[in-house]
Amino acid sequence: MARDNAHQKLNEASEITLGVKGRKTGKDIPRPIGFVYVKQQ
Prior knowledge:
Layout: H1 3-12, E1 15-21, E2 28-34
Antiparallel strand pairs: 1-2
């Protein structure tokens, strides 16, 4: 992904989903994370 495209996507979103693997079950568990993107110039 180009850098400008990544900045555009982050600017449009307010939440991303990180995936973690359960320690006991081994299942993938989605974890939504809210964020504020501030582009430094």
